[in-house]
Amino acid sequence: MTWIFAAMAVWSLLGLAPLAARSARRAGDFGIAVTLLGAALAAVPVVLTLAGRPPAAFSHPWAVPYGSLAFALDGLSAFFMVPLLLLTSLGAIFGWKYWQHEDGPIGPTWLFYNLLIASMVAVLCARNGVLFLVAWETMALVSFFLVTSHAGDVEVRKAGWIYLIATHLGSVFLLPMFVTLGQAGTSLDFDHLAAPGTLAPATAAIVFVLAVLGFGSKAGFLPMHVWLPEAHPAAPSPVSAVMSGVMIKLGIYGILRVLLLLGAPAAWWGWLLVGIGLASGVFGVLMALAQHDLKRLLAYSSVENIGIIAMGIGVGIIGLASGQTLVAILGFAGALWHVVNHALFKGLLFLGAGAIQHATGTRQLDRLGGLLKTMPRTGVAVLVGSAAISGLPPLNGFASEFAIFLGALVGATTPSRSGLAGLLVVAAGLALIGGLATACFAKAFGVVFLGVPRSDAVEGAHDPGAAMLWPLGILAGTCALLGLGAPLLLPALLPAISLLTGLPAAMASAQLHFLWRSLIAVEATILILAILFFALYAVRSRWLAARPVSRAVTWDCGFGGATARMQYSSAAFAMPLISAFSAVVASHGEVTGLSALFPREGSWSGHSGDIFKAALSRGFGALQRILRRFRRLQNGNLQVYVLYIALTMLVLLVWKLGI
Amino acid sequence: MVTQALLILLILTCLSLLGSSRLSAYIRIVALQGLLLGALTLAVHAKSLSTDIVLLALGSTIIKSLVVPRMLARAIREADVRTAARPFLGYGGSLVAGMLLLPVALWLGWHLTLPHPVAGGLVVPVSLYAMFIGLFLIAGRQQALTQILGYLVLENGIYAFGVALLVDYPLWVELAILLDLLGAVLVMGVILFDINRDFDHIDTSRLSALKD
Prior knowledge:
The complex is a heterodimer of chains A (659) and B (212).
Chain A: H1 2-12, H2 17-20, H3 24-50, E1 56-58, E2 71-73, H4 75-98, H5 107-125, H6 129-147, H7 154-184, H8 201-219, H9 228-234, H10 237-247, H11 249-262, H12 267-290, H13 294-321, H14 325-360, H15 371-374, H16 376-389, H17 396-413, H18 424-449, H19 466-484, H20 486-489, H21 494-501, H22 505-545, H23 570-580, E3 586-592, E4 603-609, H24 611-628, H25 638-657
Antiparallel strand pairs in A: 1-2, 3-4
Helix pairs in contact in A: 1-3, 1-5, 3-4, 3-5, 4-5, 4-10, 4-14, 4-19, 4-21, 5-6, 6-7, 6-10, 7-8, 7-9, 8-11, 9-10, 9-13, 10-14, 12-13, 12-18, 13-14, 13-17, 13-18, 14-16, 14-17, 14-19, 14-21, 14-22, 16-18, 16-19, 17-18, 17-19, 18-23, 21-22
Chain B: H1 2-19, H2 23-44, H3 51-79, H4 91-111, H5 123-140, H6 144-164, H7 169-199
Helix pairs in contact in B: 1-2, 1-4, 1-5, 2-3, 2-6, 3-7, 4-5, 5-6, 6-7
């Protein structure tokens, strides 16, 4: 644990250095040095633990009631540390140059960025309820300050409040959860909570539901996802990448940690998570498809991916509850793996969005276009990320979704347990989500990078400098590596999986072999297809070499007078799919000026609202109307407050003395 | 016997506070209470009189019935207010409420189990009663000055409670509280003048115009 403590000290104490820097440039230098130094220190025990070293632990009394400074690094924590350290380091490298062009002071931004890393590591290592909540709240507050970096903008402030309220609403459920667990045990230390499996089924169910509500609001489960599409676009791109890639995954970590604390799960917990995951996945990708703002689109896509992860955990729980270890292992392996994968490609896409915004000054899809010619390197990296997030083989998104798919399929087709046929829903859902995600990212990539520029914002755009390109390149490379090298990387999952399933590592490894064989088969197929593709391409090149090739404007379809506005717009591309799902996506467009026979000036405007956001804001409105009546109690009159105190005292005295 | 008489006088001063409207009368009554409490200290400890207790009685009497009333009298002179304006509950109503509080205080005082032997049957109920009246004045009157007086009466009640416990150290705690209160009165006096200078009134019920 010494390494981890040293890293946390570096992030939080040396993290103050950027505040003292004279210039933005110097603040960036300090900030990135602190981030990378801490990450290097923390990486040592993470690698050792994943390689099979027994978990390290540290415990020390703490003056806070029920609290103790209990830290530990086991397989599950170490596994979540990998994307955390990788993405925060790359985000810092990206931010190093990105933030230099900010007009405000960037010292505080760097301080909060490093504090966010420290608090996330503390969340992962905390082994005491109070300590965990302190770390959790620190993480929420620090990220609130990061979201509101551009607090001069009223929209950003609004997004910040929505985020703050959402995250606190989530914490409301965590406190009773820990109290319930602690009541059955001897203290709030995770080691002394109720022993796994000893809780009464009803109590365990309450704890699990509280965990899903509390951690789910951070992770972005439907319908608590509403803060994601507000906070992610408002935050600076490196922060969105870290928040979406890593921070919301800590909600997933929380659910898995509670599962470990609870012991043997009930089957309906799994079905609950499968249901939530399916709803989040389908709704998230549909809403993403309907967005016109690149970062909002990515935020909704995070909801989708969290849904996929929830489905994986659900499949794992169902497998555990029904005694089918292979199903459990495939489910958990897919979920954990998707955690890393999503961190990689969503980090890549958010950083890519940052590079685009940096170059063009806009995130509106309908003001971009044709960027592949001016920003070719960013374009290739974003293309890899888009393909990976759509779950296309041979990239990493496919590998993890394939594991969950396989788990669902194995569970549904095992004849002895007919009850698991319902898992086919997962398989069908994953297929639907994958298809819609492909459409969504075909739209995002196509509108931004293909065609011709839609506005003059694109003019003069160029690839960013090396410091911003390298993180994109590294992430794109890792996406490919984790896809192609998936079979080789399975052992890194073992410590976490053997914890979650309660199987010895050797047995879990034997079961994972099934996944390994399937992946090898898929990759062999892909290899053959790739060879075929390149052979055909070579034939085409040879054939065309002897003939004249003329080039024309994209999308002109033979019509000579095509303008940039005649291209597919983002709304037009998504329209067929959105209208098919109009029950879920409240999308409406308005056409004006096109009623007469002859063409006149006309316009069209479209808008898609989030039905859950509307419902939640109605709910909050009703709540406010009820609570407004109580405002009369707090009327600002000092005398009345004194009266409250006196009356309370009197009532307590009379009550205590026994009437 | 002397103790009982002093306590009954204390109750009467509390009631007369509720019924009067002139600020100078309030100050005189609170000063009188200080005198009564000084005498009470001596009366309760009559059998085991020590230098400490005499000094405490003397000190508290000087502060309660001379220093603080002087300061308050100066405050009303400089702020130029004569009468306690518009109580939330009328004077008659206040008196009725005060009468109703008396049995409550008696009941509570007799049922309260205390860790130490108590001076006499009536001391604890009367000290509670003085606290209630102090709180009632704070809650029921509008001017900042009457609120200070309310705090003083509340403090008198706490002091009487300390006297009632026949041990020495609560007296020292009590003395410390007294000094705290003196400080608080000084601070409030300063604020009072500022409020009066800036807003031309010291009506605290109108201060809530600034609440968010």
